[in-house]
Each structure stands twice: as C-alpha cells, then as structure tokens.
Amino acid sequence: MTRRIWTVLALALIFLAAIAIWIAIAAQEKKAGATEMGASAVYDIELELDNEDVFHISAKIEVANDSDVAFEDIGFYFVPNALNPKETDDFYQESAESEIEAVSSSGADTPYSLENNELLVELQNPLQPGESEMIEISYSLQLPEGGLRLSQEDRNFYLAQWYPMLAQYDEGWDIQDFDLTGESYHTGFGEFTVSYSLPQEFFVASSADDGIVQASSSGMVRGERIKDFYMALLNPAQWLHETVQVEGTEIRLFMPLDQELLESSTEVAQAAFAFFEESIGDNPFPELDIIGNDGYMEYPNIVEVGADEASIDTVLVHEIAHQWFYYIVGNDPFEDAWLDESITEFASALFLADYYGDESYGYNSAEMAMLSEKPERYTNLPLDEYSDPRYVSTVYGEAPLILRNFFTERGGQEEALAFLSAYYTEFQFRFLNTEDFKMFFEDYFEGDQSEFLDSWLK
C-alpha cells in the first residue's frame, strides 16, 4: 500500500476509536443515572418564633441556572399553602396558615403567582445558563395542631417542607400538586444556613449537624448536600435523649418520657445503622437524629418514628434505611416512589432477618402490606395513578417480596446485600429513575433480565 492509503486508514481507525470512546462515555453517563435537576440553590434562612406561636421567616435563596436555557421565572414548592381543604382535595388534617409578605429578585420587588404548592417568581431579566439570581421571600407561618408532617403539638414544633423549596427544571418547572398519598415534591441537593430566634429554650434537631444536645433559644445551623431541610423544636421538659456513636456518625435519639423505650430504640438504631454501614456503604454525614413523635417520616439526617415499643422494628429500622435510599441515593418520589420506599423496605427486611436470625420475621411487614389490598399490575406508577390502599400493598408489600424471591434463587441475603452495595456506590448523591434501575440491574446480572423486570416494572 502507498503511504497515503496507510495514512487514510490510520486516520479512519483513530476516528472510529474516538467514536467508540464517546459512545462508551455516553453509555456510562446514562448508566450512572446522573439525572440533572436543572437548577441548584444556596439557602440562607432566618426564622423567628413569636409569643403567639407564629413563625416569621425570611428566606434568601441564591438560585443557579444549571440548565442550557434561560429562565424567565423561578419555581419553588411552597407546601404550607397546600395544607388545607381549599387547595388539596380530601385534606383531612388541621390546616396550616401562611402568608407571603414580600418577594424580591436581586433586591427589587417582583411579581409572583401561588397556586396549590407551586410558587413562581417572575424575573426582571432572563437568568442565563451558568448565572445565578438572589431571590428573597418573607412570610409568616402558623403550624397546625396535629398537622400532616408540618405540625405542632404541646409546644413542640415540627418544621417539615416549611420553606420555599427549589423545584426541578426540565423544559419548565416540574412542580406537581400536593398529593396526600406520598411525597409529591422533588428537590435537589443544596446548601443551608438557618438562623433561629425563639421565645424560650428548645432542643433543636435538624438536617444539619446540631452537635451536643442542649436547649437553646437562638443559634445557627449549617448543612451541605441536603435536599429537604427539616427542623424540630422540642420542649425539653417532655423528652429524654441519648447520643451514641456508630461508625463515625453520632445518633441522637429523642423519646417521650419513657426510659425503657429510649433504651430499646437506641439498641435497635445502633444495630441497624451499623448493619447498613457495613453491608451497603458508608453514610458520610456526622449526625442522624431520631424523634419518637409518631411522625413515621424520613428527612435528610433526621427521621420521625413511633413512640411505642411495637413500632421499633417496623418503623425505626425502615426510616433509618431511608438515609441510604431516598436521601443519598435519590429519585423523584412522585414519579418513582417505589425506588426509595420498596428498596428501603427490602433493605429493612434484610436487617431484621439478620438481627433476629429469622427471614420470615424480616418480611412480616411486607407480607401484611401486600395482604391489605390487591396490588397494582406495575410497581412504578406515579402517585396520582395509585389509590391509597393499593399504593401501600404494591410499594411496601409486593415489590419487596418480588426482590426477596429473586434473590432467594440467586444467593440469598449475601447476594442481595452485595447488589444493594453496588447500587448504592453507583448512584450516591444522584437521582435515578426506573429506567436507570433497570439498566443497572441488567448490567449487574449475567443474562437477559428483561422478562423479570418487565413483569413488574412498566
């Protein structure tokens, strides 16, 4: 061959190699499930509680445009506005009372709209990709007695979804109406500074690293890589507390005035956290708070659990497992609730089976949930396509049992934990969807898994 032909062939090979590398990188990015939120935020929030139990809040939110298009407005979830029968059908709890007093963009008052939990703030000028804008929102908030998540009880205040939460931008702001079935808000990881001023001293438990348990009436907490900032103000006269160290994380437990409950909860919490750390992967955060207020809900670095012995295994373990699957491995809880709830329930069952040496006991909760109502045909339905009973039987019941049966035929508990560990390593601090899960599942196991996956996932 002539030198010219060799040169052409060499260039062609280089070109083909470059294409192969590009395809491999693209496939890896797709495999990694790095779902983009389109925008990110740094929050600086000042919170003051007056003598009438009304919160006065000023939220400064620096919003960065991480998309490739300009923003004409900025979208937030403002959940307090939806916590009433007028905005949310079939709302059965006491209503929250909130009033937005001022909204500004870069220091100038700006128009906004608020419907259900969708708050859209207009911008004076389009926010270009790579740029940021400071939004300031001032409002008052009174928590309902015995409310849904956002609530107060006997001068204990539980601040859940209480601030304007930046939404996902995906060809527009992706904000669902508030849904009573599950969690209908999808928010990205952000940085938080929260300053508080209170009329009396409270124990403060939050998504940030709060440190030594001591009552205070003012202070500041900071946290990073938090996607949903929760804060509780606890009346010190009504709570016992315990702090234990597990694998580099301090676990702070707050329980009603019941020493036996505190001791039992501490024992199981230590064991569960250590099990998930060792079997699934490291939780990098320095603190996890556990509050026994019958809230039954997970938040970043803090959970609400039952206030009775009977719920320790079923609720406490489940909410701790959520720190791995919901928080560190993220998903859209409206579109893919099963990705955190079903996998969390599966992980909880693996712990309970190991802890008590009884596999059937580990899956008792899932078995009971499945028997409560006929499950849906597919697990990965959005919240608004579920009826409430079938949501429970499908997501908390059938799906964990499907995973149990699959792994029973492929190495059992050891192989299940190895899979969850690889899954956690791959997706931590990212957001994935059902297709990402299916792709990872196919890559992890030898052979075609499509028949199995398609039998329960659309």
Task: Explain what this protein looks like in three dimensions.
Strands 1, 2, 4, 5, 8, 9, 10, 14, 15 and 16 form a 10-stranded mixed sheet that branches. This protein has a 5-stranded mixed sheet with strand order 17-18-19-21-20, covered by helices on one side. It is α+β, with helices and mostly antiparallel strands and 458 residues long. Residues 1-34 have low confidence and may be disordered. The chain folds into 2 domains: 39-237, Immunoglobulin-like, CATH 2.60.40; 243-454, Neutral Protease Domain 2 (Neutral Protease, domain 2). The chain contains 10 helices and 23 strands.
Describe this protein with a few key phrases:
Immunoglobulin-like, five-stranded mixed sheet, 10 helices, disordered N terminus, 458 residues, alpha+beta
The low-confidence runs, each spanning 5 or more residues with pLDDT under 50, are 1-34
Tally of separate domains: 2
Tally of helical segments: 10
Shape from CA axes?
globular
* Rg over C-alpha atoms, rounded to the nearest angstrom: 24 Å
Write a brief caption for the model:
This protein is of the alpha+beta class and 458 residues long.
Furnish the topology, listing elements before pairings.
Elements: H1 3-32, E1 39-49, E2 55-65, E3 71-77, E4 97-105, E5 108-109, E6 112-115, E7 118-127, E8 132-142, E9 151-153, E10 156-159, E11 165-166, E12 168-169, E13 173-174, E14 190-206, E15 216-226, E16 231-234, E17 240-246, E18 249-255, H2 259-279, E19 287-292, E20 297-299, E21 302-305, H3 312-321, E22 329-331, H4 337-356, H5 359-362, H6 364-371, H7 388-408, H8 412-427, E23 430-432, H9 434-444, H10 450-454
Parallel strand pairs: 1-14, 18-19, 19-21, 22-23
Antiparallel strand pairs: 1-2, 2-8, 3-7, 3-11, 4-5, 4-8, 6-7, 9-10, 10-16, 12-13, 14-15, 14-16, 17-18, 20-21
Helix pairs in contact: 2-3, 2-4, 3-4, 4-7, 6-7, 7-8
